[in-house]
Task: structure prediction
Amino acid sequence: MGKRILAKFVPQAWIRDYAVDIDGTVEFDCTQRIIEMGREAAMQIRDDQYESDDLVPSEIRDRHSGPFRVEVESAIREFFAEGESPS
Result:
């Protein structure tokens, strides 16, 4: 298997008006979606923003009704590291 982009879905709960991480972090493969959007658009994605939230598959998102964040920025950068091509 070639290089993959694994993102992390980190569920959160509201505590005193702050979104706080809770148990239940899930890794998911978003390689195909990132490749489809292209390198330039993918490199603009930042963690914990609407663009990264949109990568979460519905089967993961639907299991949690509260806030969440997504960590994917570094995985995208590694995937598109200079001089390397995805396989």
About this structure: The CA atoms of residues 17 and 67 lie 11 Å apart. Helices lie at 31-37, 39-42, 50-53, 58-61, 73-79. Residues 6-79 form one domain. The longest helix spans residues 31-37.
